[in-house]
Amino acid sequence: MRRDEVAKITENRKRGEGMMPNILEQMQKDLYSGKVEEVKKEVKRALEEGLSAQEILNQGLLAGMEKVGKDFKAGDLFIPEVLMCAKAMHAGLDVLRPLLAGSGATMMGKIAMGTVAGDLHDIGKNLVSMMLVGAGFEVIDLGVNVTPEKFVETAISKGAQLIGMSALLTTTMPAMKTTIEALIKAGVRDRVKVLVGGAPVTANFADSIGADAYAPDAVSAVDMARELIM
Amino acid sequence: MWINVLSKAEIEEIHERSLEVLEKTGIQVDHEKGLKVLKKAGAKVNNKTKRVRIPKKLVERCLRTVPEKFTLGARNAEKDCPLVRGGRPYSRNGGGADYTLDLETGKFRPLMLADVRSYFKLMDGLDGISFVAPVFGQDMPVLGRDILMLREAFAHTDKHIHLRAYSGKTLEYMFKMAEIVAGGKEELKKRPVVSLLEAPISPLKFLDVTVDALLLCGEYGIPLDVCVMPGSGSTGPMTMAGNVLLFNTEFLGGVVISQLAHPGAPLQYAPRPMIMDMRTGFSLVGSIEGGIMAAAGAQMAHYYDVPVSLHGPWTDSMLHDGQSTFERTYLTFMAAFAGANVLVGAGMIQESLVISHEQLVIDDELHRTVVRALEGFEVNEERLGMEAIARVGPGGNFLADPHTLRFLRGERFLTHLLYRNSREAWEGSGSKDFEERARDRARTILREHQPNPLPGDVSKALDELVGNALGQLQK
Predict the structure, then answer these.
(1) Could you write out the DSSP letters of every residue in B9-31?
(2) Phi and psi at residue B282, in whole multiples of 5°?
(3) Which neighbouring-strand residues pair with B342?
(4) Which of A50, A84, A103 is the last residue of a domain?
(5) Are residues A214 and A118 in the same domain?
(6) Which of B99, B166, B234 has its CB closest to that of A123?
(7) Residue B362 maps to which CATH number?
(8) Cβ of B332: how many Cβ atoms within 10 Å?
(9) Full domain range(s) for residue A184
(10) Which of residues 284-313 of B touch A (CB under 8 A)?
(11) What's the total number of domains in chain B?
(12) What is the pLDDT at residue A62?
């Protein structure tokens, strides 16, 4: 963007014209194409132009991701493309973060993810983690073979609002129940939501162990997390 | 007759590049004894990262000791499955499932011990199912469930049994059980009545349980399927060439660990290439790309001269429906004509999660069909029927000719399920579709078939061992 264009936008903004500054439009476009460096530069430039961090977050980055999410659900975008978009969004977010923290602006929630005790399968959990990060959540990935104690400890010390548990084996599914019981015992169940998933896990099973939600795939996991936290 | 996905030059390139990956990138092994064996043989081990880089020469040396053939022994020797290059393929059910579609209601529900028993019995009664793999009852205790499964399998079939183990410890108990059935350690080595499958985690990671299996199988002479299953685009490269390269590398990694510890240990190459659906993130097993990559895997196995097991009847469908039939039919035919020794997946739907009795009956038919297709036909004086053609001459017919009577039986595949009569007859017999006929056949076999029971003393000895094992595990 040329200097005179920037000046024009700034001028327009001062006069309350141009509802969507060009820079934000371009940011959304580049985010959609997964252009990491461009998005980062555009966020910096938007700040220079006098836009607030919250404005850039909502109307630039999150609005861009919303379009990504919409097209992904329609089957037009594929997962690796979404992950690239998320990477671009986070490059922008990194610039904004110190400003947002200072201004009291709201971020998305914090989620602790892990494959339950006794289970070493992680591709599904990783995919959900990546998609959650893509949607703007802060994800603490605890890895595989995560004990109930570890989940509880993370929820307390890191302030995670949601715990996401994954299992691939029917023999390790009971560990989900044990983890929920451990949350109750620690007295934090009322402020920590529980989302479960994994190939053998069903909605019935999630109900029976008292989980807050069950997600059959990575996309609905993101939707569920939004619903539970926000 | 064989499907050639790869040219000879491409096979060699994939082999060379696999050696390069092993030497430069290496594999990850965290198993103390496994690391020791690898280090001693000259692999470069990084003790901190557990990364093992294997020199080319070492892989080549290990490849020389892998046997080219072996037999999956059965309690009843008539049901042995010799795995020989160019021989007929054998079939087994897909193992590990823990849900089912109820035979009577059609409803999706957890698999229970009672279903496991009826499923074993059905597999025993179907000729097109050559040997059996465990499926798990969710009402069985978690601790030692794999051991209890083997006990059930021994009780319900005299066919070969393909194991699944939860740990090195339970595996050893299961091998002891197999010794009892085979009649001793040496007998088990000669005719192993059980075999095992273990899978490294793609990409390139060998868990302790996998290394335990590689070492223990060698010690007991038990055939092991080195199951390599990268998911294209997720745990493997997006491209088919990259995925084949990766699973081939992982197979060679398994060969090295196994052959270093026990030269001559029987291994089967078991590629199970999957693809991740880029719209949902689901790992798919029924894709045509999976079939193409598996066929390439068979070519690599033939290049190394080791038996090969491929997925045959496999599907992503939720039901034993049209999609299921469609996917499993092309996969089965591709795998069989790629030269697979074992076709895996009978009875399984929804990837590897659900079993269905009627699907198993359909797959019995599918397997016998593909075996018939592979057999082709003989061309010789008698079968050409020169005399018969002369006898009948122009305008006649062959119905009552002696040549027809001579070859009436044995020339054709006899179907149990395909409908081949008039509409009137079909309506008269209840207008049943393919699946309903399969259900009928399943019910008949379950009602009438009597599995060959274990000798009383063997049964008693097994119960004793299982009781002890479960007690030990609880400690």
Answers:
(1) HHHHHHHHHHHHHHHHT-EEE--
(2) -75, 145
(3) B90, B309
(4) A103
(5) yes
(6) B234
(7) 3.20.20.480
(8) 28
(9) 110-229
(10) none
(11) 1
(12) 87
Other Cβ atoms less than 10 A from the Cβ of B112: the count is 16
Q: Which positions in chain B touch A121 (Cβ < 8 Å)?
A: 201
* pTM, rounded to two decimals: 0.90
Distance linking the first and last C-alpha atoms of chain B: 56
B305: left (phi over 0), alpha (psi -120 to 50) or beta: left
Residues A91 and A197 in one domain: no
**Which residue has tokens 């200097």?**
A3
Rounded distance between C-alpha atoms, residue B291 and residue B326, angstroms:
13
Exposure string for A178-215, b = 16+ CB within 10 A, e = fewer? bbbebbeebeebeebbbbbbbbbbbeebbeebebbbbb
Total of domains in chain A:
2
- CA A141 to centroid of chain Cα atoms: 12
Q: What is the DSSP string of A16-69?
A: T--SS-HHHHHHHHHHHTT-HHHHHHHHHHHHHTT--HHHIIIIIIIHHHHHHH
Q: What is the CATH number of the domain that holds A78?
A: 1.10.1240.10
Q: Are A218 and A151 in contact (CB under 8 A)?
A: no
Q: Give me the interface pTM, i.e. the ipTM.
A: 0.82
Q: Are residue A83 and residue A142 in the same domain, yes or no?
A: no
Q: Binning pLDDT at 50, 70 and 90, where does residue A52 land?
A: very high
The enclosing domain of A223 has a CATH number of 3.40.50.280
> Are the C-beta atoms of B294 and B335 separated by less than 8 Å?
yes
Write out A22-35 in H/E/C secondary structure: HHHHHHHHHHHCCC
Tokens of B254: 């398994």
Listed in sequence order, the residues at least 6 apart from B426 whose beta carbon sits closer than 8 Å to its beta carbon are B419, B432
Residues A225, A118 share a domain = yes
Asked whether B441 and B416 are in contact (CB, 8 A), the reply is: yes
What is the DSSP secondary structure assignment for residue A212, as one 8-state letter? S
Contacts of B204 in chain A (CB under 8 A): none
| The pair of three-digit structure tokens given for residue B180, joined into one six-digit string | 């009892």
Taking any CB pair shorter than 8 Å as contact, residues of chain A touching chain B are 72, 75, 78-80, 120-121, 123-124, 127, 131, 170-171, 174, 199-200, 217-219
pLDDT at A120: 82
Query: Per the structure block, which two tokens stand in for A157?
Result: 């010390």
The answer to whether residue B11 sits within a structural domain is no
Q: How do beta strands B224-228 and B44-46 pair?
A: unpaired
Residues on chain B touching A170 (C-beta within 8 angstroms): 98, 110, 136, 138
Whole-angstrom distance, CA of residue A199 vs CA of residue B27: 27
How would you class B395 by CB atoms within 10 Å of its CB: exposed for 0-12, middle for 13-18, buried for 19 or more? exposed
**Last residue in a domain, options A103, A120, A144:** A103
pLDDT digits over B418-446, tens only?
999 999 999 999 999 999 999 999 999 99
Across the interface, which of B110, B136, B281 has its CB nearest the CB of A127? B281
Contact B353 A200 (CB under 8 A): yes
**Are residues A180 and A163 both part of a single domain?**
yes
Q: What type of residue is A207?
A: D
Co-location of A74 and A172 in the same domain: no
The phi, psi pair for B198, rounded to 5°, reads -140, 145
Question: Phi then psi for B332, rounded to 5 degrees?
Answer: -65, -45
- Alpha-carbon span A70 to A38, nearest angstrom: 22
pLDDT of residue A103: 63
List B residues 174-233 in contact with A (Cβ-Cβ < 8 A). 201, 207, 231, 233
Helix-strand-coil split of chain A, %, nearest 5: 60, 10, 30
Same domain, A124 and A216: yes
pLDDT tens digits, B167-194: 889 999 999 999 999 999 999 999 999 9
CA–CA gap between residue A13 and residue A26 (Å, rounded): 16
